[in-house]
């Protein structure tokens, strides 16, 4: 109940902030579909939390609004609730601890704390106790602080870099000359997207596999036809490869859980007579969606393409062999 109450009070603040002439209790009751008593209780709680709300008569109605001259000044162009939202976003930056990004954002959050009154901060702490953000798994990017710092400087300047890189599939390191286009954070990992002169195409690099980075000072032009959104739209996660249409059958037992989420922007779903789901994706490459399907175990079955079916079978056979080998070794030692 506490979380519902805080969420409703937050929405009431947003409603009042968005109104031009304030809102009556009846207006808020209609917007929130709640009782008069609840609205009054919420407004009293918000005033006690330090929000500069007041009432005035407008055309015979009592309206609630923010005081024009706030008792705490909100830096322009932020509104009060925007500033509060920014403060609550603090959980998201923990993944960047010990990096330049974290230092800059932490400094910003300290300024937010200095701007908001003590009562409002106590109110926000109540919200944070009812709402938390968990980002797992993630990597400790503090050890890559200098590389991230260099990339953050060269990206807006469009400066070429040279780097020693070790890909996931190769034990050998290679020297790459790269035009960095953008950084992308996904599933706890930071990726660099840029034109690789060694491969002659746009590639995606895992930042923590960059062993050394050097700024060359050479400037490049970002291709006018390059779109980061378009480049990443076909990837199931980050992989870029041949485009495939993938069809997967989800069991009736798991259809609701799987069907409630957007796994890829291309996904299409069809309900089956037995309660299961048939999901269709258009994705670049098969390795990443293969890992997703394997994570669902027997609740997911690949219908097509055949190539992906064979990849799944091979992975399952290798897993079974590994477990069987470990099991046999254990039995032999008993």
TrEMBL record:
WYL domain mapped to chain residues: 146-215
Record's signal peptide: none
One Pfam family here: WYL
Boundaries of every WCX domain copy: 243-319
Name this polypeptide is given: HTH domain-containing protein
Helix-turn-helix type domain ranges (all copies): 8-56
InterPro entries cross-referenced by the UniProt entry: CBASS_pafABC_assoc_protein, HTH_11, PafC-like, WCX_dom, WH-like_DNA-bd_sf, WH_DNA-bd_sf, WYL_dom
